[in-house]
Structure prediction request, 277 residues.
Amino acid sequence: MKAVRFVAGDGAPRLGRLEDAEVVDAGPAGFRGFDATTEAWEAVASAAGERHALADVRLLHPCEPQKIIAIGLNYQAHVDETSLARPEVPFGFAIWPNALTGHEAEIVVPREETRPDWEGEVALIVGRRTYRADRAAARAAIGGISAFNDVSGRRAQLETPMRQFTLGKSFDTFSPMGPCVVHPDDFDDLARIGVRTTIDGEVVQDSDTSHLIFDFEELIEYFSRGVTIEPGDVIATGTPGGVGDERKPPRYLREGEIVEVTVDGVGTLRNTVRFER
Prediction:
């Protein structure tokens, strides 16, 4: 089952069930959007409202999280390309929620940012309040799976001695997410979800979650030690190798390019790059 948050015409955000090329209205989205709780999934499953052609609605980022927990260096190929040491525990940083944007929205690069980069990822939406989870509780806390692009302003991220990860990854529109959320039970194996990034059709990243250093459950276990993770919170689980900043020579996003992040079972998140004038 696929859930979306959408706008039809000039209306307010609503939830819906995505069925091929149609969206079935499931009612008002509410403050947190689609928070992937059991109740949210039940509302989407039982939706019997107006049917909209997918082409006639605008898909928003699915949820409005309190926290976006982003994971760095979680694929060995990405560790290798950075020449950094393999982490012994998960490396996390925050992304401010203002960075979120939806499917087909523009990625707007600020005038000051000279090194905009891509990072295609699998995102988790936590579906229940979670604190000090063991592995079973961590699995039960996974409420949904989506695609995520952790667009990264490498200038801002790396220009200070302490590394401004949060600033460089939190510019407005720098966290596209969508196009939908898929229930975790719809996947045969959460440890083998493919993720690919293309730019204007060129494949720049291609991997799957079997290559994660810390799997989904380990991430939730680790970050819930002392931090309460709420329904609707997002964990961006890390990017594979193939980012632009580590290429020789480096390769950054350009005006008008179309960036697509495909997560198998979810679909393709598509965004066009625009430079702020």
User: Anything to note?
Assistant: The chain is about 15% helix and 35% strand. The chain has two domains: 2-60, 68-275.
